[in-house]
Amino acid sequence: MPFVRQWLAERYAAPVLADLVDPAGVEVAVVGGGAPAGADEMDALPDLRAIVNFGVGYDNVDVEEARRRGIVVSNTPDVLTDAVADLAAFLVVDVLRGFTAADRFVRSGAWARGQQPPLTRDVRGAAVGVLGLGRIGTAAAERLEAFGAVVHYHSRSPKDVAWTYHSSPVGLAAASDVLVVLVPGGAGTDGLVGTAVLEALGPEGHLVNVARGSVVDEDALVAALEEGRIAGAGLDVFADEPHVPAALLGRDDVVLLPHVGSATTETREAMGRLVLDNVDSFLERGVLVTPVG
Ligand code: NDP
């Protein structure tokens, strides 16, 4: 987010942390790219009063520790919902229709050699399970419904929607042709999608993860793919970014993206403006525009 850094430098002469000579007096820290903001970082900034996170997911911030110290935290909800929902819906369509695999097929010369790509599956009529029906999950479900998919979902509580609710991730996976993960990262969802959920998804089922790598047990995913216990996956996020498990790189039944859910110029600028609004509001009035918790 170089432009946000530039805006902050122009507006507040704010230094980047690496260039900070004297940490005393720093009241607001802007955190981007999932950089950690835990007890160590808070210790290093003794006068910190607010953490402004560039991103809607704030599993990189130790919110409990911040609260304990009287430090408030904000994120960037809503402004990225459409871009991320587009990606989630795209990955669902892609794991069913195999478009990016077909692109690789053309580039490999296989088509020119007279081979035919395999037949794929209709999106219309496919059961799509949204794990985490929040802002992005709802927007993704609306898009997929327009494609003719049948939407199911699980959140910790049912929502006021017409889609079919399942009271557990395993139950949702069992009812889904494609399971789309859109819960927040963090301790509450660590490894939520493990062997049991993948077993329930089954050999014809696909997993799409646009949430956080930590939500999916990556070893269990690799094993399920290698043993044919699920059919394929579309992944935008990984446990140890930017490292992708080597076992996934050569597989044609997985689609791999470099965490690009919100990566459009318009969306990143809107996120940057909301970051600035939070900084301005906190410094002028002592309140954040989009606080978390
Ligand atoms: P929301 O908070 O609006 O939605 C999250 C939903 O998950 C809530 O509706 C919540 O419902 C549900 N949920 C939370 N914990 C659990 C749980 N343990 N089990 C089941 N459901 C749960 O967030 P957004 O939709 O705005 O964002 C979702 C996530 O998407 C972000 O936190 C971020 O990690 C990820 N993201 C990824 C991006 C990318 O580039 N790939 C970009 C932006 C976001 P309930 O409380 O009823 O359980």
Automatic annotation (TrEMBL):
Xref: InterPro entries: D-isomer_2-hydroxyacid_DH (IPR050223), D-isomer_2_OHA_DH_cat_dom (IPR006139), D-isomer_DH_CS1 (IPR029752), D-isomer_DH_NAD-bd (IPR006140), NAD(P)-bd_dom_sf (IPR036291)
PROSITE patterns registered for this protein in UniProt: D_2_HYDROXYACID_DH_1
Domain D-isomer specific 2-hydroxyacid dehydrogenase catalytic span(s) in chain numbering: 24-291
Superkingdom field: Bacteria
Keywords of the record: NAD, Oxidoreductase
Domain D-isomer specific 2-hydroxyacid dehydrogenase NAD-binding: 91-261
Record-linked CDD domains: HPPR (cd12156)
Pfam families: 2-Hacid_dh, 2-Hacid_dh_C
Transmembrane parts of this sequence: none
Family: Belongs to the D-isomer specific 2-hydroxyacid dehydrogenase family.
PANTHER family assigned to the protein according to its UniProt record, in alphabetical order: 2-HYDROXYACID DEHYDROGENASE YGL185C-RELATED (PTHR10996:SF178), 2-HYDROXYACID DEHYDROGENASE-RELATED (PTHR10996)
Protein known as: Hydroxyacid dehydrogenase
